[in-house]
Design a protein that fits this description.
Elements (H helix, E strand, L loop, with lengths): L1 E6 L5 E6 L4 E5 L5 E5 L6 E6 L5 E6 L3 E6 H6 L22 E6 L7 E4 L5 E4 L6
Antiparallel strand pairs: 1-2, 2-3, 3-4, 5-6, 6-7, 7-8, 9-10
């Protein structure tokens, strides 16, 4: 089941996430899957792009915010004329795209938002032990 859909800032790519704990990045022009980001261990509830579109932030039930290098995900599939093509057999591990991961104490992440100054805000309910 898909929980979140998010278009890239330029409208060329689509990131989807859901209950299977995967974040999938799609090329809209040809419908091809560019990358599967699989480091979350629970459903992914929210995603946000940085203001310049180079970072994709994800968060969910596993109480961890992960930052992904979106430029690196898409750089190998953009042609000289600006069109996107499906990636070749060269598959990179999703850890290759990971910029950082920031676990919370016990708070699932329900909201992510980059401010105008590119500060990432997160929200979620605190759950006492």
């Amino acid at each position: 089941m898909v929980d979140t859909l998010l278009f890239s800032n330029d409208g060329r790519f689509l990131a989807t996430s859901g209950t299977d704990s995967k974040v999938l990045v799609w090329d809209i022009s040809n419908g091809g899957l560019l990358s599967a980001l699989t480091l979350h261990t629970g459903p992914v509830f929210t995603m946000a792009f940085s203001r310049e579109g180079s970072i994709l932030a994800t968060g969910g039930q596993d109480a961890c915010v992960r930052l992904w290098n979106f430029t690196r995900i898409t750089e190998d599939v953009i042609t000289e004329d600006g069109a996107a093509i499906a990636p070749e057999t060269k598959k990179l591990s999703c850890t290759h795209f990971l910029v950082g991961e920031y676990p919370t104490k016990n708070v699932p992440i329900y909201g992510l938002h980059f401010t105008r100054r590119n500060v990432l805000l997160t929200s979620g309910p605190f759950q006492a032990n």
